[in-house]
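Worked problem 6 (solution included).
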Amino acid sequence: MLILPKSTEIKVVVAKQKIKKMLIQKDSFKTFDNEVSKCCIINEISENTTHISTGKEVKIIYILQFILKKESFTYKLIEYFSKNTSQHIIFVLEYGNSCKVAVYKEKVLYTQNLNDNITLELKGLDLSKVWDNLIIDIFDIKVEQGRTLKEQVQKNSEYDKLVLKIEKLEKKMRKEKQPLKKRELYEKCNRLKKELEQLKNG
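Solution. The predicted structure is:
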């Protein structure tokens, strides 16, 4: 569970009818209804609750709690919620004694099950900076010097995609019997490994 300053704690149940208006993508509300039993806003990080000034992009940060009906969860819903509401939301996903945290920042980021509570400090001169720092702290993102969080997430995403492509090619290469085809896969794999190295050092 996320531990935030007491002044930010609230308890507002969000009615499913209200959620239905937010989830406009085909079958997205049906998926939500099948997977989530209850939805509550449990924290509001704003100028009123923290005395931290609003940022250029971020005016309020909400912590939204989903009580799940089952352990599996469709993470695409996180993207839908964030884009459809244009709000800055950190999602706490609870099922029994397990708890995960998710957010949409260029892509959906999510943790594994949290073994312990995470106590979060609100760091930053305004809420835009606080938002970025919360994401960095929760998801343990190492932002390289000279990069913004957005740029770092994009780079990490590209890196992960390349790693996945290389793994699939290597698997395919091991199964391939034809020498010529195997050679083509080997060369393609090497090109991707060079791209990966450049991305890593870039």
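Discussion: Helices lie at 16-22, 28-35, 47-50, 76-85, 127-139, 149-175, 179-201.
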